[in-house]
Amino acid sequence: MAKTAKTKTPTDVAKLTTAQAKVEHMRLALELEGHDRRYYQEDAPSISDAEYDALRQRFNAIEKRFPELVTAESPSQKIGAAPLGRFRKVRHAVPMLSLDNAFAEQDVLDFIGRIERFLKLSDDKIDFSAEPKIDGLSMSLRYEGGELITAATRGDGAEGEDVTANIRTLEDVPQKLKGRNVPDVCEVRGEVYMTKKAFLALNERQKAAGDTIFANPRNSAAGSLRQKDPSITASRPLGFFAYSWGQMSAMPEKTQTGMIHWFERCGFKTNPLTKLCHSVEHLIAFHHQIEEQRGELDYDIDGVVYKIDRIDWQERLGFVSRTPRWAIAHKFPAERAMTVLRDIEIQVGRTGSFTPVGKLEPVGVGGVIVQNVTLHNEDYIKGIGNKGEVLREGRDIRLGDTVVIQRAGDVIPQVVDVVIDKRPKDAKEFHFPKKCPCPLHTDVVREETATGEEGSRARCTGEFACPFQKIEHLKLFVSRRAFDIDGLGEKQLQYFFDREWVREPADIFTLPKRNAKLKLEEIEGYGETSVRNLFAAIDSRRRISLERFIYALGMRHVGETTALALARGYGSWDAFHDACLKVAKGDEETIAEMDALDQIGDTVIKSVAAYFGESHNRGIVERLVKELNEIIDAEKPKSNSAVAGKTVVFTGSLEKMTRDEAKATAERLGAKAAGSVSKKTDYVVAGPGAGSKLAEAKKHGVPVLTEDEWLKLIGE
Ligand SMILES: NC(=O)c1ccc[n+]([C@@H]2O[C@H](COP(=O)([O-])OP(=O)(O)OC[C@H]3O[C@@H](n4cnc5c(N)ncnc54)[C@H](O)[C@@H]3O)[C@@H](O)[C@H]2O)c1
């Protein structure tokens, strides 16, 4: 049963204790990682950009106050997300970076102040190139001998996806650069976007054909570009504006604006609103002017980018982790609109958590028709929750209310205000369900937070008995980081689920056996080849690593990192399974053993106990294991390597591997990969763009290795 709500507003960062900061830092890092994955890899964000920016600002404020919490893995050090396996990977010759954000004018003044101090300027005049910030996706186009040879997305900044065939279908991208004396190697970078008109027309066509409806032009541009079949990309109207460059064998110009004109001479389109500004007043006036024009533009923009015009100064200023020091994005405030809330529906997620979704009278906000709005949780609807402090503290949301919704280049907008004057007499209070809307009508409880307190989210207690959770769990089971079954995406899974062909993970593995009856090849969209490929993909997963297997079980609070920690801690499935059964029975010794494992605490243990305490779950696991050939033991960290017991910090961008890979290799060899440099650090491995950590290493006399030296040291 739902307990009484607790009113909680986040503690001011300045008042956080070290312990509180650590917990919140970890929680926010996990939350941001999830959002990054959904946004960059799946083109399907679940919160608005404004909400995301607010989370990130708080996260950054915590790291600023507690710099010891910054690790190489922190979202503040990362760009975008690693490319998915769908496309060939392309390593960028020069990393593709993100941009620092300014929200208020003071942030812009601070940015300029930092530049003046860094360059030690006194009377020198700084010129800026001010450019609309196009809300699309960045692209790097590599030309050799003037010919287009590769096109890659940003990915995680170091590696992107090879989308050359798709990019070749864009009219705005020349196959061959125009003009004489074009440098031998030119990497032209810019933004791929879809106009608002094209986006609305595409959605109409998608709707008529019963296909995916895109949430906004950015998503539809990303989705249209990242198609396996280039003819689909060709049928979608995508534009490209050039504004930047990567590797250049020679620089044809000395300024940013000069380069923009050069791009035009090469045959590219550049944004016509770009302006050379000579002072901060100029920049701010330009920002206001573009903000006013924003609604009339045919493409989405979410701010203005200011860049130092002189390229030699850009080079001197360099980078700080994921952003250049010489540029900043001055964002626009979120767009708002007023509409009526008609209904509230409850969506049930994989772990049974409830998300109330507000059904709105459709309204246009910044070129997008909005019909749904996330209402987060019960407290939020009552106006008392964490998110409730946004303008409407104390004001609840009722069915029939006129609400102000906000969207900032985002997908799921949020309610920022309730117009009490417009509240109709018959506006109805919303009673949060005490039973799950699934056919089983299971009880609902309030979720616990990572620190064990009562959270604001409600959750169905049905676990795998609840059909809503079952399908969500199956989606996780086949996802890329779990069993990763090629050809078995959400759509196919839903199809099989609705026909009761797949109701639990083991059913996936018995599909080939049952096909004589099911005849998948007769389903529309399938054929003999695709069914053969699907079965081959299923068979190839009958051998799986222990950490993936544990993650795929979908236990609450057991994400990838925890799954890895458990796998490493127990080594084999038998040992882990045995421990889980004992934990479920309350065996104190086994609980203490699990508790002693690195990164495992009370919350995970409770969740393991709850999961294996259910006979239904034990049956699911048992039937699944029977279908597999091998659950591969987890590799225990090696202790006889040259780096066993050493502490290493990776900084800058690495050329031959991602930071994640580097860290994982170090850990496998028994080293500890730390996030910050101290006297205790044994090695700092520094790649291009290394900043403060390199300076720290020098200060403490810690040996600094190049990536190659590191690889030599570990014998790879
Ligand atoms: N809603 C979510 O769940 C979610 C998740 C992750 C990120 N986001 C959004 O994405 C933003 C962060 O994304 P990001 O790291 O790509 O940074 P960013 O979008 O704030 O800025 C960097 C990007 O701006 C683009 N850009 C457009 N015009 C440009 C120009 N003229 N010059 C240079 N760059 C230009 C480039 O693609 C570049 O990669 C956040 O502020 C957030 O709003 C949202």
Describe what this molecule looks like in 3D.
With 716 residues, the chain is α+β, with helices and mostly antiparallel strands. It folds into five domains: 13-78 and 334-422, Nucleic acid-binding proteins (OB fold (Dihydrolipoamide Acetyltransferase, E2P)); 89-331, D-amino Acid Aminotransferase, Chain A, domain 1 (2-Layer Sandwich), CATH 3.30.470; 462-541, DNA polymerase, domain 1; 545-632, 5' to 3' exonuclease, C-terminal subdomain (DNA polymerase, domain 1); 647-713, 3-Layer(aba) Sandwich (Rossmann fold), CATH 3.40.50.10190. It is 36% helix and 20% strand. The protein is built from 24 helices and 26 strands. The strands form eight sheets. A five-stranded mixed sheet has the order 2-13-10-3-9. The protein has a five-stranded antiparallel sheet with strand order 16-15-14-17-18, with helices on one face. Strand 17 and strand 18 (414-418) form a beta hairpin. Helix 1 (18-41) runs antiparallel to helix 2 and helix 18 (573-584) packs across helix 19. It is globular. Mean pLDDT is 86; it is low at 1-8 and 386-391. Bound molecules: nicotinamide-adenine-dinucleotide. Nicotinamide-adenine-dinucleotide (NAD) is lined by residues 35-36, 38-39, 45, 47-49, 52-53, 79-80, 98-99, 101, 131, 133-134, 138, 154, 191, 243-244, 305, 329, 410. Nicotinamide-adenine-dinucleotide binds at residues 35-36, 38-39, 45, 47-49, 52-53, 79-80, 98-99, 101, 131, 133-134, 138, 154, 191, 243-244, 305, 329, 410. Residues 638-711 form the BRCT domain. Keywords: DNA damage, DNA repair, DNA replication, Ligase, Magnesium, Manganese, Metal-binding, NAD, Zinc. It holds the Pfam family OB_DNA_ligase. This is DNA ligase. One of its GO terms (molecular function) is metal ion binding.
